[in-house]
Each structure stands twice: as structure tokens, then as C-alpha cells.
Design brief:
heterodimer, A: alpha+beta, Ubiquitin-like (UB roll), 5-stranded mixed β-sheet, 1 helix, 11% helix, B: mainly alpha, Ribonucleotide Reductase, subunit A, two-stranded antiparallel ribbon, two-stranded antiparallel sheet, 21 helices, 61% helix, globular
Chain lengths: 119, 510
């Protein structure tokens, strides 16, 4: 539905990928761990290997949580943009079909947050 | 020689004066067609057949208006003056209370100014003289409210941090993009949508949830200056609320075709307004050292009960309750906790302080929220207290995902599952967009071209438009004083100053 307007009303998206200097935004969300109040927004190179995000980026994001060090990444289940997903850890984000403003939600079996509160 | 006495004019009745000073100031243009003089009157699709059917229940004319307002100003400034002379800031319950004022001054007062601009604009663009005059008066009210709030709260700026540059912060600071974008959404709509948004949905349906908690909160916490500007605004608010209801009834009575348009605006602006009030829920439940009532109680009283009566009344025009009102009711026992813990996550980047509530305060929350607090939120505070005790006060080091419409971090949980974040998304012209709720998603889908322009603070930082990539650079660009305005209340200069005053007070008393 077009916007009701007094003249032509067309704009480019303010968050189109070209505005991010070679990065794309990817959202990551560790389910059942609401110590982190929302999904995280990370600017990442599309050619970055998936494994590098897990090993080099996420520890700086989630490391304060006592369960983070216990994650067995081979057992993690993933959803990419609302679809079940199995990442190829050694392939790049782009080769894993992770695009600009994709959302990755992940569940860590056996690690369900503190105090039964999904925290 | 005696001069002839001036001819005696019969004094005009109130009704006649009103007619002369409103309708009498309007005319049909002849040099230019009316459609060119009032270019915004039709494009929203609202049909008005008889502008004279507009009834102004207050019949207020400009000369009377000046008189009333001048009287109120005199009283208000006398109180502000005596508050300052008597060091009124020493009588608040606790310095943590000042943080509610910081949120108000940076988040709400600039909206009063935006409202001034919005009403001045639509006051120019309505064809009918009745609504035009009502909007012009409201434009002046709103400017007055912005000024009196700034003047009142400026007293606290002499002593406390975070109050020094509200106008600048409002345009830049990440969480203030929520109120800013709310109002810009309304001001960039047409005049009829603007009034539905601000006069009806905000002033009429939701305002009690903003002003009553703030003003009674101020009264409960010894802040007589803020109470006084609240009182000074109150009679204006009554007029604003009436304008809100009048404009809705006027549109609905003028043409049946207006009903679905108005309903869609009510749906949209109820949801936009409700999301904006999330910050008030946090203020009520967490930021007032002496609580007034809980957010859930306020929601029940001011929306569920009062809203039922209002929408029953409007049902004869074919208007139903706003879409997703039931989601708002489902969220009432978690909203404030989700919002406060979010600001606790990101206090390194806020112009006010957060803290773990005291045990006593947690017991109050537990009593007010028996179904959720002990189960879901008390464990969070226990864990964070322990981390703090070990010298590792928790801060979330990574920027969050934001909702494209309300611009709040995506913190809200599924309507039926408080442990799972609610994710909604869509694609438009090949690009993905994310929303915190079905309410926000619906708003986007109806007008994607509008919201694809959203200035989302997190993305703007990553695009390099906010002073730099480091936290300190961004805070400098926000005009936040690092180490004073931000971080936990514990260890803040505010706390230190307050404790010194209290120590001095006990010495004096002894």
C-alpha cells in the first residue's frame, strides 16, 4: 500500500547494505538466555567464515554468561530467518546463505539459562 | 463644555464573542481556490461536508485564553522560585528519583515542543475555523508546557548529572529515538491523522498513563516543583482531551467512508502510543523510590476500564477497540521488568542511572506481580547482584537489534510465552525488516515506504554516522559526560553528592 502523500513518495532504504562499508548486519540470538535482553546486531563481512564468528566474535558478546563456555557447538540447533538451518562452519556467511539483516536464533540443548528463568 | 459620552455598545454574549473571534475570522478565499490555500485538507481521504458542524465545547476565545494562562504562569513561577530558594531538591525521597526526571526531560519535554510545532502546522491547514483555533491554542499550550518543564527541571541541573542538554540528546541518543520517531511519524502524516494520533490516541486514550504516574510520582517523592507544573498543565490537558474526542466524533459523523480510515489510525496509534509508554511502566515500577501504583494496576484502571467505556461509546459509529489491545493486557505483568532490565543491560550508554532494586523493592514487585516476578525476574537481579559484588557489574557489550517501527530494542516476549523473544519480519523490495510485535509489523506493511527511512540508532552507529565506532566517541557525540551521566547509580557522582548531603543533615540534626 503506498503512503497517502501530496506528491510522489519513494525513498531508498536507509539501511541498505551499501551503507555499511562492506559489512552486512547479521542478528544473533541465544535463546533462553535473556541476560542478553535482545538479539545482537553485528556488522560482519559476508566472506567471514561462520566458525570465526563463533570462535572470535561471540565470546566477546556472550562470555559473561556462565553457560557460554559450556556450549558444545556441534549440538547447537539453529534457525536462519525462521527456517531450520545447519551451518557449514568452514564456509563463509554468504555461502551459508546468511544475508544482510538475516536473523540467526540458536538453542543450546541442556543449557537453558539460569534459575529456570531463561536467563 | 461636556464632551459627548461615547456611544454605549451592548456587551457581547459569550456565544457572540466566540462566533466573532472564531468563525468571524474565517472567509472563503477568492484570489486563490480554497484547495490551493488548504492543500492538505483532502489527500488523506477524509471527507468533510460541513466544517461548521464542528462544536468547540470550551468556547474559548484568544483574549480569555491569554488571561487564564497568564494567571497560571504567575502561580507556577512563584512556586518554582520558592522551591529554588528553599533548596527543594533536598526534600526528595532519594537521589535515584532524579533519574525519572532525566527520562522525562530528555524523552517527554522535547515532545511537548514537537507537539507545539505539529499543532501550529495543522492549525494552519484545517479548512474549518473551529478546529483551526482549537489547534492554535493547543500549539501555544504545548510550547508553554515545554518551557515550564525546562524551567522547573533546570533547578535540578545545578546539582545532578544528565540534565544539561536534553534538546541535543533527544535528537541523537539511542533510546530517545523512540519518542522522537513516534512524534515525527505523527507530524509527517496529514492533519487528520496527526489529530487522531496525538489528540485522540495519545491525549485522550493514553495520557492518564503518562501524566498521572509522573505527577503523583513527583508528589509521593517530595518533588513539589514538578507537581506544580503538572497542575499548571492540567486544565490545558482537559481541553486537549476534549479536542481529541471531538475530532474523532466529527470525522465519524461527517461521512461513513471516514470510519475505516479512522479505525486504522486508532489501531496504529494505540499501538505506537502503547509502545512509547513502555518507558513509563519502568519509571513507575522501578524508578520511584516511593511507589504510587504498579504499571499493571495503572493499565487496568486507565486503559482496560476507562477504555472499555470509551469504545462502548464509540461503537455506535462502527468503531471497535484498537487491534492488539489484548496483547497489551497480556504484557502488563512483564512490561516494566523487560524494559528496566534492558536499560540495566545498556546503562553504559544512557543519560540516567540504573540499579538493582533493593530487597524491599523486590518484595513490593513480587506482591504486585505474583505470577511473574519471583519466577522470572527476581533471579535476574540475584545474579546481577552477585556479579556486582564480585566487582563485575554486568553490562551488555553488544548493540541490540531494534524494531524498525517503534525503534525499541527487540526485547518484548511472545504474547503467550514470557521466556521467548517475539520476532516478526517481512521483506520489502528485496530487503528484510524486523519487528517486535504484530502491531508494529502491521504498521510497516501498510506504509513500508515511510518506515524504510527509519533512523535506527544501532544501524547509524554501524554506518559511521554517530561520531565514531567506540562507545566513548558515540557518547561524546550524544553530549553525554562519560563516567558521570552513565553507568550504575552505585558509585555515581549523583549518589556521592546525595550521601554527603544526608551525612550533613544528620550532623545538623545532631
Amino acid at each position: 500500500m503506498p503512503v497517502a502523500a501530496i506528491g510522489p513518495y519513494e525513498f531508498a532504504s536507509r539501511d541498505r547494505v551499501e551503507n555499511f562499508h562492506g559489512n552486512q548486519i547479521v542478528y544473533w540470538h541465544w535463546e533462553e538466555h535473556l541476560m542478553f535482553c535482545a538479539a545482537l546486531a553485528l556488522p560482519l563481512k559476508p566472506e567471514m567464515p561462520f566458525r570465526d564468528v563463533i570462535e572470535k566474535v561471540l565470546p566477546g558478546c556472550y562470555g559473561q554468561h556462565p553457560e557460554f563456555a559450556k556450549i558444545d557447538w556441534s549440538k547447537v540447533t539453529w534457525m536462519l530467518d525462521n527456517r531450520p538451518f545447519k551451518p557449514d562452519l568452514d564456509a563463509s556467511l554468504a555461502a551459508n546463505h546468511i544475508g544482510h539483516k538475516s536473523i540467526l536464533r540458536f538453542w543450546t540443548p541442556g543449557l537453558n539459562g539460569l534459575a529456570g528463568a531463561a536467563f | 463644555m461636556n464632551a459627548m459620552p461615547p456611544p454605549k455598545h451592548r456587551k457581547l454574549s459569550l456565544k457572540e464573542r466566540y462566533a466573532h473571534l472564531t468563525r468571524g475570522l474565517s472567509w472563503e478565499t477568492t484570489y486563490q481556490p480554497m484547495s490551493k490555500v488548504f492543500p492538505f485538507a483532502d489527500y488523506e481521504g477524509i471527507k468533510i461536508h460541513d466544517w461548521d458542524a464542528w462544536e468547540d465545547p470550551f468556547r474559548l476565545t484568544m483574549d480569555a485564553y491569554w488571561k487564564y494562562q497568564a494567571e497560571k504562569e504567575r502561580k507556577l513561577y512563584a512556586v518554582i522560585e520558592s522551591f529554588a530558594q528553599n533548596n527543594g531538591h533536598l526534600n526528595v525521597t532519594d537521589a535515584r528519583y532524579i533519574n525519572a526526571l532525566k527520562v522525562f526531560l530528555t524523552g517527554v519535554s522535547p515532545l511537548e515542543y514537537s507537539a507545539h510545532r505539529g499543532y501550529a502546522h495543522v492549525g494552519r491547514h484545517f479548512v474549518g475555523a473551529g478546529p483551526r483555533i482549537a489547534c492554535q491554542m493547543q500549539a501555544i499550550d504545548e510550547l508553554r508546557h515545554a518551557q515550564t518543564q525546562i524551567h522547573t527541571i533546570s533547578h535540578y541541573n545545578k546539582f545532578f548529572d544528565g540534565l544539561h542538554d536534553a534538546r541535543h540528546m533527544h535528537d541523537r541518543v539511542w533510546y530517545l529515538s523512540v519518542p522522537k520517531s513516534f512524534f515525527e511519524d505523527a507530524c509527517s502524516a496529514g492533519p487528520f491523522e496527526f489529530l487522531t494520533a496525538i489528540s485522540f490516541s495519545f491525549e485522550y486514550v493514553l495520557t492518564n498513563l503518562l501524566f498521572v504516574p509522573f505527577m503523583s510520582g513527583a508528589a509521593y517523592n517530595g518533588d513539589m516543583a514538578t507537581v506544580t507544573f503538572g497542575f499548571s498543565a492540567q486544565s490545558d490537558e482537559a481541553r486537549h482531551m476534549t479536542l481529541g474526542l471531538e475530532i474523532i466524533k466529527f470525522m465519524l459523523e461527517q461521512d461513513e467512508g471516514n470510519v475505516p480510515i479512522v479505525q486504522r489510525w486508532i489501531d496504529k496509534w494505540f499501538w505506537r502510543g502503547y509502545r512509547l509508554l513502555a518507558i513509563v511502566s519502568m519509571m513507575m515500577d522501578y524508578m520511584l523510590p516511593k511507589r504510587v501504583m504498579s504499571w499493571a494496576e495503572a493499565w487496568e484502571m486507565y486503559f482496560e476500564q476507562a477504555g472499555d467505556a470509551l469504545f462502548n461509546d464509540l461503537s455506535r459509529y462502527g468503531i471497535r477497540k484498537p487491534k492488539y489491545h489484548e496483547v497489551a493486557s497480556k504484557e502488563k505483568s512483564r512490561l516494566s521488568h523487560e524494559v528496566w532490565t534492558t536499560f540495566y543491560n545498556y546503562s553504559q550508554a544512557t543519560a540516567f542511572h540504573t540499579w538493582v532494586p533493593t530487597e524491599e523493592e523486590q518484595d513490593w514487585l513480587s506482591a504486585k506481580y505474583p505470577d511473574t516476578f519471583d519466577r522470572l525476574y527476581r533471579p535476574r537481579f540475584q545474579c546481577w547482584s552477585e556479579m556486582e559484588a564480585q566487582g563485575k557489574r554486568y553490562y551488555n557489550p553488544t548493540l541490540p537489534q531494534l524494531c524498525v517501527v517503534c525503534q525499541i530494542p527487540m526485547i518484548f516476549t511472545e504474547p503467550d510465552d514470557p521466556k521467548t523473544i517475539c520476532f516478526r519480519s517481512t521483506e520489502y523490495k528485496g530487503e528484510k525488516y524486523h519487528f517486535c510485535s504484530d502491531g508494529c509489523k502491521d504498521i510497516f506493511i501498510y506504509e513500508p515506504e515511510k518506515y524504510m527511512q527509519s533512523w535506527l540508532p544501532v544501524h547509524q552507529i554501524y554506518q559511521g554516522n554517530c561520531g565514531g565506532a567506540d562507545l566513548k566517541d558515540v557518547l561524546a557525540w550524544y553530549h553525554l559526560n562519560f563516567g558521570a551521566d552513565n553507568f550504575d547509580y552505585k558509585g555515581s557522582p549523583d549518589e556521592k553528592l546525595w550521601n554527603e548531603w544526608q551525612a550533613q543533615r544528620s550532623v545538623n540534626e545532631a
